[in-house]
Hints:
alpha/beta, Oxidized Rhodanese, domain 1, 2 domains
Amino acid sequence: MIELSNEEIRRYSRHLILPEVGMAGQRKIRNTSVLCIGAGGLGSPIAMYLAAAGIGKIGIVDFDTVDVSNLQRQILHADADVGRSKAESAKETIAGLNPNVEVVLHKTRISSENALELVKPYDIVVDGTDNFPTRYLTNDACVLLGKPNVYGSIFRFEGQASVFAPTKGGPCYRCLYPEPPPPGMVPSCAEGGVLGVLPGIIGCIQATEILKLALGKGSSLVGRLMLFNALDMKFRELKLRRDPKCPICGDAPTIKALIDYEQFCGVVPEPVAAGASPDEVTVHDMKKALDNPSLGIRVIDVREPDEHAIARVAGTTLVPLSLLPQRFTELDANAQYYLHCKGGVRSLKALNFLRERGYKYVKSVKGGISAWSDHVDPSVPKY
């Protein structure tokens, strides 16, 4: 076990005077390795507080680059980091916070092909991801390797956290969520938004659980799901139990290797080229429709009113997706419509809804208003 230097003793003095930590506990923290999957909203407070606390080795898995829209909540990154690798930005921030921490970068997308290799060298895995395929993949890799999985998720004003560790008698993520929601049922933070401080709260809970695991102290969130509502400022707790019929951690597991998680979650790969789908048109097609009313194509904006107030395209009609079941009769079933949203996901939902009700001449605008801003009119703000 690596001993603490005099500089580290000074740095961690507030830990060392805690009877529950002391020199022995701080050495345990120093000798613990953590794999942080994601260096975004949750990964930022997790990585920073673990580094400050003295975790000896932190692995960062992230293939993305910093976008200006990240800065509202992803405190690992600064304005000067926009366009940089998130992993590189995270390493620089951590080094500035605590040079004693070893940071290992994995600038790749975690997948069924590399997950076991990535997870195996670390003591604890923390899930800072924002999509269901990666959550199931992380869970399964941790179960197969016997690693604790410190889970957190956020959306709008609500968050949740737990520790999935069947080796400690608790359930895994699949015990809580045996099946993923239908594709598109749960909006992403990019679609639904998130309060900037929320990942800080949930991420700090995850970091706390990691330190408790490293120390072997306290009552962990194994077997418990903590729910937080920021608007009400309330915490609730649900008791969780391992499902003996769980396909990966149950009494007779049927999943013994990593699977195709995109397929499991029903995620359809993006078409290679714009307009490759017969249900989609480009923003240039949308512009032609708006510039030439004689074509008889109306453009319907299916975003929410709050989004419409941020950015809009002149000549479009707002019919929010949330109100479409009440308002679709306002549209002529024999007319032609182009449907657009922020990025092209909700417009496809609206298309399917209308098709099921006999509207034959509807198309979704690929890329939505974000693509409009990129390729047609940069004066339209991106959000």
